[in-house]
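Why does residue order matter? Because the sequence determines the fold. Keep that principle in mind as you read this record.
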Amino acid sequence: MNNREIIEKIYELYEQKMFYIAFSILKDESAAEDAVQDSFVKLIKNISRIKNPTSDKTKAYIIKTIKNATIDIYRIRKREHVFYDDSILDDVVYHDDNDFSDIDIKDLTIREELTKLPQKYKEIIILHIEKEMSIQEIARNQGISYDAARKRYERGIKALRKNVLIAIDNQNIKI
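Structure:
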């Protein structure tokens, strides 16, 4: 197979799956398409690394490439203050009878990362988001100032977002 045939075969086999992975994280069709496009640019630049489009090694490389492109776009949009709903990292399970097994990103849920936060942050986030209490109500309930409650909430959310991105970076997805 020449390089062009390899890329065409990869596109035929994996483009939709790559889009699904990107969309499941970004929840934005345009951004997911950008991630797929960025991934194919990288794949084309590194085509010499790909010998067999259907090999397990190639599948792993494609998943790593789309995952990294998606994370890059997520970070850029975050810096540009394009905020996504926190549900972007809810459980995602995909099954296709084609060559891919389950792609399971359940370890990346916000709830799991939330349990890793210090108790003072975790409590305020849960009370504010799940119990729908205002920061002022939480401050009274916890016996702390409004500013302290607000700052704990902000720090907790910041740590949670950072932890979720680190978890995505370190996630091993088996194909």
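Confidence is low (pLDDT under 50) at residues 82-108, 168-175.
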